[in-house]
Amino acid sequence: MELKSFQKLFQMTKVINSQFEMSEILQVFVDAIAGEITQADLVGFFLKQPDGTFQGYKGNKLPVDITELLIDPREDEFVRDILRNQASDYISDTSVDLRLDQSKRQLLKIKSILGIPVIVENDVFGLVFVHDFGKPMNITQEQMEVTEAFVNMASVAIRNIRMFEQRQLLMEKQQLLLDATKALSESLSVKDVLNTFFYYMRKASGSKDIGIHLYNEKEHTIEPYQLSSENVTVDEWKVKHREVKLTIENDRLLYEVITQKKSAAIEDVYADPRPNHKAFVSFDIRSIMVFPLVAKGSVYGVVAIPSIGKPRKYEASILEFCQSISDATATALSNAQHTETLDHSVNERSIELQHANFKLEGLVRELEHLNELKSDFIATLSHELRTPITAVKGSVDILSKGILGGLNDSQKDLLDIASKSIGRLLDQVNELLDFAKMENGKFELVYTEADFKEIIKESVTIVQSLINKKKLILVVESDAETDTVVSVDKQRILQILLNLLSNAIKFTPPMGVITIKTIFEETVLTVEVHDSGIGIPFEKQKNIFTKFYQANNQINGTGLGLAISKQLIELHGGRIWFESTEGQGSIFKFTLPKGRE
């Protein structure tokens, strides 16, 4: 090969390797062969198609549009020889060598022709044809060799570009998968998950027809769920599915996808016995990809991506990529469905609770009304009872004092019993009146400055006869040495002390001990009433301060004493509690602020 030819080859190689688009490289390629190497009239590059034909792609100049030319090896022996041998071939006289497709010979007025295969990774990527127009081509052996060398260099450039494009495509797929995974993880509702899935799956599959079906494990049926398509509406899609009624029993393809948890792709559905052909005829499906939706180890649905109206070939990389999108979607969709189901249940429960709450509010209002009626009734009844009781008490007192005449011992005993009974009844009426006032919020304290020691002394004096009668020992202890003055409602504090002392006397057996302790601190007074009585059973202790509750039903009373005492102490700003062990006595304690709050 002459130096000049090497220089041309080197220059053209630099030009080709400086280009990054295959279209540009092939245009430089055909122009260089025509103008710099062979000086031929016509140079054309034909690109191999999936069906084995060769479509016109680039040319230097032709009397027809090269992109409209199609070479079919089945009709062109010359091309078949080039493909079989994967080597250049030359026809010096097409009128003698008749292997060339005669229609192409006449169209382009080919007298002689050079054909060279473009081999990329051991496969024919395309074909280059060199010829003159209407005259024999005057080409030397050296020009043929340089052209072949140039084609080989172009093959290397094309291979590099394809590798670069594949790397770019892989990076784009990885980025798309990352974007899809991130978007799906941020999609909280079923609607958002579906919109995100369809958007990314269209990009991944290159298809606009994508359907999601749910698998009913109990019935073995495949139910249409959601669709993204430009060929059919969701309603039409679901109607057709109901007509076909797909199950894993009548569709072997779906059976394999669901039971084996693996994707499948069929380029010709009618040449494959597994799919339900009735369903594919209904939807005019020629090819299909199917992917399982797997969440928590179970298949709960499938994704179907059909090719409508025409067949499609599937590359393994497309299948793998779409499966990755389906895997990411399965978890997101399952979680969103579960969340929305829980939300729906919570909403239903909330509505039920709201209705129940309305009913409770109505009951509360009714109970409040009944409570008001009860308090009013108690107050009215107490007032009505108080007047005749007071009159009876006055009459008994007059008789007891002998104002109306002397009485014998039996009469005096009867009047004494009557007087005590009337006193107890009057105390109970007063308790009911106090309770009614507290319930209606009409109760007010009357504060005065009082010596607490004097209040205790007065309470002891009142119960002293009961203490003596039952032969009890009453002890009063106080840590105060100087100021024992407090600001309280004296009569109510006396009422509380009398209530606690009366209870202690009732529940303490003869010869028992009752102790009153007072502890004066800087701002707080603590009072304790100890008894050595029968104590309070544990199961009854929680109800001790409940209105109308009596720990011992054999003891007469209203059951309001402790409840009223608690309210009175709390109105003063203090608190009351107790400690008790059955059979060992009780200690009731309460605190009062020394000054008025």
UniProtKB/TrEMBL annotation:
Gene3D superfamilies: 1.10.287.130, 3.30.450.40, Histidine kinase-like ATPase, C-terminal domain (3.30.565.10). Its EC number is 2.7.13.3. CDD domains: HATPase_EvgS-ArcB-TorS-like, HisKA. Residues 380-596 form the Histidine kinase domain. SUPFAM superfamilies: ATPase domain of HSP90 chaperone/DNA topoisomerase II/histidine kinase, GAF domain-like, Homodimeric domain of signal transducing histidine kinase. InterPro entries: GAF, GAF-like_dom_sf, HATPase_C_sf, HATPase_dom, His_kinase_dom, HisK_dim/P_dom, HisK_dim/P_sf, Sensor_HK_Regulatory. It holds the Pfam family HisKA. It is an enzyme of class 2 (transferase). Coiled coil: none annotated. Keywords: ATP-binding, Kinase, Nucleotide-binding, Phosphoprotein, Transferase, Two-component regulatory system. It catalyses: ATP + protein L-histidine = ADP + protein N-phospho-L-histidine. One of its GO terms (molecular function) is ATP binding. It comes from the Bacteria. This is histidine kinase. It comes from Paenibacillus alginolyticus.
